[in-house]
Amino acid sequence: MSNYVVTVSREYGSGGRLIGKKLAEELGIAFYDGELLSLVAKESGYTEDFVRRNDQKKTQSLLYHLYIGSQLLPASDMIFIAQSRVIKDLYNKESCVIVGRCADYVLRGQPNVINTFITAPIESRIARVRDEYGESADNYRTYLIKKDKNRIAYYNYFADDAWGKVQTYDISVNSDIGVDLSAKLIAEYVREKLAAK
């Protein structure tokens, strides 16, 4: 079988990163989430700290860019371009799972790319963010909505499609069935889909 990539898009607090990591283990392939940022730093020439601070952020205001200098593109755009090159390079080199970073959009139309979306009821997401991630907020519901709005704004800025739109994903999973079972379900789908080609 030739190389393949599984992209994981997710609602905040749905456990998408955990599922992606478990999925990579289940399939015996590489896993990229924050690890991608080191590769992006090398590709872009920016420091890793700078890449991390600007990761998955949409472009700032024009005044901000006038203030920081005369570079042709905003830093977030330059990082997205470098990130896209890294994602395409990974696609050409190895089978892997990539979490977030518009990977589904960057690899759109390529063969052997399976796009997944992880969702969960808001009550489950609140419990995970509070109990597993250890994050605190005055109002968890508002906190989660804001986190998802940031993801939507980032995705919709760089991609010409809508984040979370069901037609853009091969499979969507409600993670209330658990991280392990979610990963196994997606792994089975991936194997069946690739075997059918």
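Above is the first protein from milestone M3; the second protein from the same milestone is given next.
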Amino acid sequence: MALQGRLAFEKEIYEMEELLARLEAGATNEVSNSEEIRRIRRELVNLKRKKYSNLNAWETVQVSRHPERPQTCDYLDLVFEEFVELHGDRAFGDDRAIRTGFARLGDYKVLLVGHQKGHTLAERTECFYGCAHPEGYRKALNKMKLAAKFRLPILCLIDTPGAFPGIGAEERGQAQLIATNLFEMSRLPTPIICVIIGEGGSGGALGIGIGDRVSMLEHAYYSVISPEGCAGILWKVATDVTKPLAAEALRLTARHLADLGVIDDVIPEPLGGAHRDQREMANTLKTYLLRYLRELRPLPTEELLRLRYEKFRRMGVFDESPPTPEPSANGTAPAE
């Protein structure tokens, strides 16, 4: 694994992997050497399981941003077939941070919408590191309406630190377009499945995040703001001390959000994270997507929309009871 992709909390894992690689490179038929290799393999599996079953919120954010973590275009090759990309928003341009197109998943024809960050510097520059502009959200909604016309299911793969924060994006109505997407997606007469595959940051994620099923990969995050942004607001500076504090306070991990009822499922990742075995991750994601399609495709449109409405109405905690009147100075309740 490239040095630039190494995470600090994985230091012991890297050291053991390098030791195992050296032993395997010089392996002979000696029984003792073979036994040593098997022992280290067992210890490596146990170490990964221990580390990744106890990640804190900030470590989860780091894993979700791993440069080798599979992105939308990687899943296109590993999960889907017959992908035909649809370009442009018919108004301004073709935002490369959001990819849209028709594809086949198993026996289902679907519309795929997903953020793309890019792996190389050139790709990231082209995709603005996955931060979509207004034309990206307009493109996504136009294609979703086209899919709904033929009642094709819509699959949204979310992986963005947030919508693009530039002046030009604001001048072209970034906030209004995201709000329009939220409203329109809530009533599209076709199944919508959303999966946070990496970062799920702020309105940039919500812009394609309203669906009948909303799930997360095990080591993804989903939050109203990034830990750095939160730390900058609360403590005026984002440091190695304040960023973990902000991440923990935001309750942004899949485990937290499942407990809060914000997401429907936590999709397990390969041992050590999706970046360690992209093909296994793709197979797991495909299994979950097919399950959701089998559940949602047979539902009548009216029932589908009713359940979608109720799903989002159930989110949050609130109290509708009237406030209890405070007693007066003499200890009696005030007169009505």
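Note on the second protein: The chain has 14 helices and eight strands.
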